[in-house]
Automatic annotation (TrEMBL):
This is cGAS/DncV-like nucleotidyltransferase C-terminal helical domain-containing protein. The keyword DNA-binding does not apply. One of its GO terms (molecular function) is nucleotidyltransferase activity. The keyword Transcription regulation does not apply.
Length: 296
C-alpha cells in the first residue's frame, strides 16, 4: 500500500494564517515602538520561517520574527585573498552600538511589555502565547557580510545575511533572504509544486513523530525546504502520488553530499556547521519516509 491521493492532497494544504498574521502585527508594532530604548538606532523587523515561506501546515505554532540591527555587521573574510584581507582590516572601524547591547535593549523592552511570558532561548527570545497571540520566537541579529572581494568601500562585493549568537556564545551566520527568494523562485519554476510538496513532507514528518517513528528533532522544516530545493524541476508534478514518489526516489538515489541549502551559500549536510543538517539525520528521515510510503 501507499499513501492515498486524498491524504497527500490534504497534507499539501497550507495551514491557517489569520492568528499568525495578528501575532506578527502585534509583535511588529511592539518592536517598532518609538518608546523603546533602541528606537533611535537603524533596525528593521521582518519574518522568517514557515509563515514567511508559505510552507506552514496545520500544527505549526511558533511565529518566527527577526529584529535586525542594520548599522552593525560581522564579516566572513575566508574567501578573500590575503591582499584583500589587509585592505579590509585597514579600512574597517569598530561598531559604536554592538549587537550585544542591542539584544539587551530588545530583551528588556519585551520583558517590559510581556513580563514573564518572555523567556530566553538557545537562539531566540521566546514569547509565550496569550489569548489570540500565538507563541513567537524573536531572533535578535545584525547584518552579516560574506566577502568575495574588497579593494575599498567603493570597490567591494559580498553576500549579505544575518549574524547572531546562541546561548553558548557561538556566532551563527545565515542567509534568510536568499533562502526565501530561492524558495519562491523554485515554487514558480515548478509551476507551484515546490511549496505544495514541502508541506506534504512536513505533514509526513509530523505524522511519523506522532506515531513515534522518528524523533521530533530529526528533520526541521528549514532543512526539508532545503532538501526539496535540490530536486530537479522535472521530478515535480503529475498526480499527488506520482509527485511524492518521484521526488522521494530521486532524493534517496541522489548524491546528497553535493546538495546545498536553499540559500545556495552552504552545503545542506555538514558534520559540524550550526546551520546545516547532519548527513545521517537526512538519510534516516528519507529511509523512514520510504518505509512509511511502502507500509501505509
Amino acid at each position: 500500500m501507499t499513501i492515498s491521493e486524498d491524504q497527500l492532497k490534504t497534507w499539501a494544504k497550507q495551514g491557517p494564517t489569520a492568528q499568525f498574521t495578528a501575532t506578527y502585527d502585534t509583535l511588529k508594532n511592539c518592536l517598532n515602538d518609538s518608546n523603546s530604548p533602541y528606537y533611535p538606532k537603524d533596525f528593521s523587523v521582518f519574518l522568517q520561517g514557515s509563515y514567511k515561506n508559505d510552507s506552514n501546515v496545520y500544527g505549526d505554532s511558533d511565529v518566527d520574527v527577526v529584529i535586525q540591527l542594520n548599522q552593525t555587521y560581522y564579516s566572513d573574510l575566508s574567501n578573500l585573498s590575503e591582499e584583500d584581507k589587509k585592505l579590509y582590516n585597514a579600512a574597517r572601524s569598530g561598531a559604536g552600538y554592538t549587537l550585544d547591547q542591542f539584544k539587551k535593549d530588545v530583551t528588556g523592552w519585551l520583558v517590559k511589555k510581556y513580563g514573564t511570558d518572555v523567556q530566553p532561548g538557545t537562539k531566540a527570545i521566546y514569547i509565550k502565547g496569550n489569548g489570540s497571540r500565538r507563541n513567537a520566537d524573536v531572533l535578535v541579529c545584525c547584518k552579516h557580510r560574506r566577502y568575495i572581494r574588497f579593494k575599498s568601500w567603493a570597490d567591494q562585493h559580498y553576500y549579505e545575511g544575518i549574524s547572531f549568537f546562541n546561548s553558548g556564545g557561538m556566532r551563527i551566520d545565515n542567509f534568510p533572504t536568499q533562502h526565501s527568494d530561492n524558495c519562491t523562485k523554485k515554487h514558480q519554476d515548478s509551476k507551484n509544486w515546490y511549496k505544495h510538496t514541502v508541506r506534504i513532507y512536513k505533514n509526513l514528518r509530523n505524522t511519523m513523530i506522532e506515531k513515534k517513528l522518528v524523533e521530533d528533532s530529526l528533520a526541521p522544516s528549514y532543512f526539508l525546504e532545503g532538501l526539496l530545493w535540490n530536486v530537479p524541476l522535472d521530478h515535480f508534478g503529475g498526480k499527488e502520488q506520482q509527485n511524492f514518489r518521484d521526488t522521494l526516489e530521486w532524493l534517496w538515489m541522489a548524491d546528497r553530499s553535493k546538495f546545498t541549502c536553499a540559500n545556495d551559500l552552504y552545503y545542506l549536510c555538514h558534520p559540524t556547521s550550526l546551520v546545516t543538517w547532519r548527513a545521517e539525520q537526512c538519510e534516516k528521515f528519507l529511509s523512514k519516509a520510504i518505509d512509511y510510503w511502502n507500509e501505509a
